Amino acid sequence: MAKLYFNYSTMNAGKSTILLQASHNYRENNMDTYLLTAQLDDRAGTGRIASRIGIGAEADMFSPTDDLFEMVSARVEQGKIACVFVDEAQFLSSEQVWQLARAVDDLKLPVLCYGLRVDFQGQLFPGSAALLALADEMREVRTICRCGRKATMVIRQDEDGNAITQGEQVQIGGNETYVSLCRRHWRESVGDLSAR
Ligand SMILES: [Zn+2]
């Protein structure tokens, strides 16, 4: 039975690497896959899913206005696919997650989404909230904090290494870096959300 999967984690856990490896495993067995990733700026054309360890693959890009059921249907008409992979799934809209759920149910295709659970302010991304609600199966891709505990949170740092607590959920092209931390060390860096 086809399912909607949500593989979630914090930053730098290796989600894209896992996605690319899984897709590769299908292709090695002569089964085609359809890769999607978020279009974060106005650059048109083909996207690419790249991992920090140096591997990558071409992917179609989705913008906030794209109907993903239509995109998957159009791809299926060009040839059989074994499953759909979605990177940067935190940037899906709630509507788009429903469209992917329709692709699972009506086209009987497994859809594997990979994304961040929470943003730098400790809030769920819209796509992740919808996936937590709708996914048939969820798996945590684990990474660790500097203390060795499981990292579940992320901070955004400026060039001097100070934690940034305000700003847009998505920052494009800045000089900020992201560091994944356990909740205790996240609170040490930015304080409790409720105290702000
Ligand atoms: Zn820690």
Automatic annotation (TrEMBL):
Belongs to the thymidine kinase family. NCBIfam families: PRK04296.1-5. It is found in: Cytoplasm. ATP binds at residues 9-16, 87-90. This is Thymidine kinase. Coiled coil: none annotated. It catalyses: thymidine + ATP = dTMP + ADP + H(+). Gene3D superfamilies: 3.30.60.20, P-loop containing nucleotide triphosphate hydrolases. One of its GO terms (molecular function) is kinase activity. Its EC number is 2.7.1.21. Homotetramer. PANTHER family: THYMIDINE KINASE (PTHR11441), THYMIDINE KINASE, CYTOSOLIC (PTHR11441:SF0). InterPro entries: P-loop_NTPase (IPR027417), Thymidine_kinase (IPR001267), Thymidine_kinase_CS (IPR020633). The active site is at residue 88. It holds the Pfam family TK. The gene is tdk. Keywords: ATP-binding, Cytoplasm, DNA synthesis, Kinase, Metal-binding, Nucleotide-binding, Transferase, Zinc. It comes from the Bacteria. The keyword Kinase applies. Zn(2+) binds at residues 145, 147, 182, 185. It is an enzyme of class 2 (transferase).
